[in-house]
Amino acid sequence: MIARHPGWAFTFAHPAHFIALGFGAGVSRFAPGTVGTLVAFPLWWLLGPGYSPLELVAILVMLFGVGVWACELTGLHLGVPDHGAMCWDEVVAFLAVLALIPNEPLWQGLAFLVFRAFDVVKPPPIRQLERRVKGGMGVMVDDVLAAGYTLIVLALLKRFVL
User: In this predicted model, what pLDDT tens digit does every residue of 117-132 receive, in sequence order?
Assistant: First the structure.
């Protein structure tokens, strides 16, 4: 077990580590959650256009499930259940946001800023949920709420401002 910040050797030591650390984005010592969120963009550009909405839902559910497993195991190996270097939760949650907003740079950039704000601030009930739900599910689920808040804000902006 290591409680320090994981490096590349840890990232490649197990497939779960590689996934939980967002393909290595979590190795960043500066804002690994933000770097992990950025990983969602190239994944979206590769995945998004080629799938129907139903197929995208299935892919996102599968990625969420893989994340629960990967974050659970990686948290055990790190000795910290929700280590800051684990950023697969941001990747999957932001992919869901990208799937539901207009596929335009303005909306994507705005979504990125709003999502990061909610993920950092963790307004109720996000922080409470994060404290109650443990393990891999706890790591993944709070970012789903941040994604939901992001979509609400963007819908309100679209309706009343833009």
Answer: 999 999 999 888 888 9
Structure tokens belonging to residue 64: 């969420």
**What pLDDT digit, counting tens, does each position of 26-73 carry?**
999 999 999 999 999 999 999 888 899 899 999 999 999 999 999 999
Q: How many CB atoms lie within 10 A of CB 81?
A: 16
Domain spans, the chain: 8-160
Q: What CA–CA distance (Å, rounded) separates 117 from 58?
A: 27
Q: What long-range pairs does 80-83 form, CB within 8 A, spacing at least 24? A: 80/3, 81/134, 81/135, 81/138, 81/139, 82/130, 82/138, 82/139, 83/6
Model-level pTM? 0.94
Q: Phi, psi (5° rounding) for residue 70? A: -65, -40
Tell which residue, 98, 90, 87, has the closest CA to residue 44: 98
